Amino acid sequence: MTAAPPRTAREVRLAAVPEGLPSSEHFAVVETPLPEPGPDQVLVRNRYFLVFPGLRTLVGKEADGLPLPPLPPLREGDTLFGPAVGEVVTAPAGSPLRAGDTVVHLLGWREYALVPAAGCARADDTLPDPVAHLSPGSAAYGALTRLAEVRPGDTVFVTGAAGAVGSLAGQIARLLGATRVIGSTGSPEKAGRLVAELGYDAVVLRGAGPVADQLAQAAPEGIDVLVDTVAGEQLVAALAAARQGARFALVGTLSGQMSAERTDGGAPVEIDAFRVVLKGLSLRGYSGADHPDVDGEWTGRFGAWLRSGEISFPHTRISGIDRAPGALRDMIEGRHFGAVVVEL
């Protein structure tokens, strides 16, 4: 039986808008009265929420004026938000949800959330672990099936391979038929884990020499597919290594997003247009909103792969809302492997 909610609950707010990279002092964990649910609201006790890279942009001043997706920039005093999994405490009359149901929504970073009924989806048992609903793997799956379309025998390069998206992209590429999978990361320890745990054939180590030279050695015959979460030097290196007709899916721009020096929300890259034309390359940006059928398809395949042991969901669990601001900073600094989840 679901326990009655408390009178107050804690949440993480933006205490000050950072000039550069956010630190713990830019956030505050505050206790606030828990309001009564309105007629169309579901009260959810959050169990887990995702610490995702997009928050870096949403809390920064460079968010002003950017064509961001339907996620509003965070202002001083705002409560942070993001994907969360929780348990329904109360639901409005006529709702298909019932107390005790596990649901997914976008109001994480708080112990209890008042979620509009339309923004709350029941999480069934397709995935063996509720926390797997926080996996951002649908972006990797969509990129590899809708844009880059991996074919048997392909060589695939995944940038930021130890991140939340990259740690799944390589595994998915292999399951879709790729013969050789190469990743990039900035940590020797992570490089070892990518090979030993996730089946990568080779790893380009950022900071260990020119990325283009390392990639040429890892893929002497070139690459057919790129899943890019980083941009910057690694995208330029991938262009140099591209085979005829290579397909590039651009999923993220961490090189700019996680930079302390950047002054805007962009990640400019100098591209040799002649090479793109000569090799017949395709470069396309992936947005989940453009492919609404992907989430359901991904969830079904992800659940089957998890149950069969063909795929793993690499993630780090951080216990307690008090540690959430530090978890964001650690993620920005690349201290974790896979996705970062706060467990309440």
Task: Map the helices and strands.
Elements: E1 8-14, E2 27-33, E3 41-51, H1 54-58, E4 84-90, E5 102-105, E6 112-116, E7 121-122, H2 137-147, E8 155-158, H3 166-175, E9 180-185, H4 188-198, E10 202-205, H5 211-218, E11 223-228, H6 232-241, E12 242-250, H7 254-257, H8 273-279, E13 282-285, H9 294-308, E14 315-319, H10 324-332, E15 339-343
Parallel strand pairs: 8-9, 8-11, 9-10, 11-12, 12-13, 14-15
Antiparallel strand pairs: 1-2, 3-4, 3-6, 3-15, 4-5, 5-7
Pfam family, one: ADH_N_2
Protein name: NADP-dependent oxidoreductase
Domain Enoyl reductase (ER): 20-342
Task: Give a verbal description of the structure.
With 344 residues, this protein is of the alpha/beta class. It folds into two domains: 8-135 and 313-343, Medium-chain alcohol dehydrogenases, catalytic domain (Quinone Oxidoreductase, Chain A, domain 1); 137-290, Rossmann fold. 26% of the residues lie in helices and 25% in strands. It has ten helices and 15 strands. The strands form three sheets. Strands 3, 4, 5, 6, 7, 14 and 15 form a seven-stranded mixed beta sheet that branches. A six-stranded parallel beta sheet has the order 10-9-8-11-12-13, sandwiched between helices. A two-stranded antiparallel ribbon has the order 1-2. Helix 4 (188-198) links the parallel strand 9 and strand 10. It is globular. The mean pLDDT is 91.
CATH superfamily of the largest domain: Medium-chain alcohol dehydrogenases, catalytic domain
CATH class of the largest domain: Alpha Beta
- Count of distinct structural domains: 2
Helix content: 25-40%
Shape from CA axes? globular
Main β-sheet, in a few words? 7 strands, mixed
Report the end-to-end length measured between terminal Cα atoms: 19 Å
Mean pLDDT across residues? 91
Q: Helix and strand succession?
A: EEEHEEEEHEHEHEHEHEHHEHEHE
State the helix count.
10
Strand count: 15
Structural class per helix/strand content?
alpha/beta
Rg, rounded, reads 21 Å
The name CATH uses for the topology of the largest domain is: Quinone Oxidoreductase, Chain A, domain 1
Low-confidence stretches: none
* CATH architectural category of the largest domain: Alpha-Beta Complex
Oligomer: single chain
